[in-house]
Amino acid sequence: MQNAGKFYIDGKWIDPISSQKMDVINPATEQVITQITLASEEDVDLAVAAAKRSFESYSQTTVDQRLGWLEKLLSIYKHRYHDVAQTITAELGAPTTMSHEQQAAAGVDHLEDFIKALRDLKTEETLYNGETLLREPIGVCGLITPWNWPMNQIVLKVIPALATGCTCVLKPSEFTPLNAMLYAEMIHEAGFPAGSFNLIQGAGPIAGASMSRHPDIAMMSFTGSTRAGKAITKDASETIKRVTLELGGKSPNIVFDDVDIEDRITFSVLDVFNNTGQTCDAPTRMLVQRSIYDDAVKVAKRVGDAASVGDPTVEGNHIGPLVSHIQYDRVQTLIQAGIDEGAKLLVGGVGKPDGINEGYFTKPTIFADVNNNMRIAREEIFGPVVVMIPFDSEEDAIKIANDTPYGLAAYIQTPDAAKAGRVARKLRAGMVRINGAFPRAGSPFGGYKQSGAGREGGMFGLEDFMEIKMLHKP
């Protein structure tokens, strides 16, 4: 990529002040793809200054003007769709079929929905008491995105910022930086004004912290680990800036005894294995009613044994590598912890799959006879690891499901609509997926407790980037 090592600031690709380099690694081969530069505090200052200058004029653009740029961006993205999918496969290791059907597709789905939402956004309305409410862009926004669904998260942050008249500085994960560079090229081609969008690369402790503390950034939007979210919140508190967070999860998946066991257990296992388990709202804690538990364990083992791991450049539904050696080591540590704590290892275990000697591949793993006090039931593993926990009653399932510091998503498997609705209302989670229902673009994405604050997507995502101003008239 011709702009690797550069930053996109004030409408131009420029050489950074920092000279610190980092290799971008293909996780399937462990080979270097390219090098990027890691931003210094001075680089952050340059990007923020450009965004601040641009805000004066960009915040005054009309909705119609911004819709024009967004529609042009959508057209460009569709034209470069294959480039996006290929890049995500190379730097994340997502299998090419999954990259095309899910990873790159998110860039279209969310952008189309934000365009619809912006058309419906009321920037001025009269309240029931007769007074006038205005919605205005909050200012310069700092955006930090993760590596696991890179384009999905970039679009969920960059587009609502630009759509509402904010300007922004994006810092993507240093492990998957190349798709963000592609997106910067598209934004430039779409004609967004210089300084409205700025891209830097960097590590969280320096670039991320500098953004969070920066007095000229009005809002931080972060997706990533709960640990990093806490650090950003503390840094942002110095200037009382708005912070929205989409953090970790340990989502319960309640499987009642009235389901089609083959269908629902197969779905549940494969949903965790998708994206190599690197999904924050994956149904990683499978709670199964005791009367069908033994049969569910048999099905889970069969599905797990049949799962294949392989080259992400080959089409198919196999599992790719984890993103990095750091993530590989973490997943291995937690699989070993499950074994040490006495959980029953059904499938997988520590080490790489048979016949694979290079790349950050791990064995898809399923544990049975887990209790909710084990590390593998409480910590976010972020790998293709399922833990199975038996429960006796509806009340027991709800208690176990809610016994977690997280609250991003929850899943319910039952054909009984009344039971599903009753249980869903008692689960402390921001999203409840019933019988495999998939979230649609435009629905607010986010969670309770230590899974974050704020919502992304659609109208709710736009409103997070806006301030409310009241006009009190005599």
TrEMBL record:
Question: Which residues participate directly in catalysis?
Answer: E246
Q: Which GO terms describe its molecular function?
A: oxidoreductase activity, acting on the aldehyde or oxo group of donors, NAD or NADP as acceptor
The answer to whether the entry has keyword Iron is no
Tell me where in this chain the Aldehyde dehydrogenase domain is found. Answer: 13-470
The regions listed as transmembrane in this protein's record are: none
Q: Which UniProt keywords apply?
A: Oxidoreductase
Q: Is-annotated flag, keyword Magnesium?
A: no
The text of the family note is: Belongs to the aldehyde dehydrogenase family.
Name by which UniProt lists this protein: Aldehyde dehydrogenase family protein
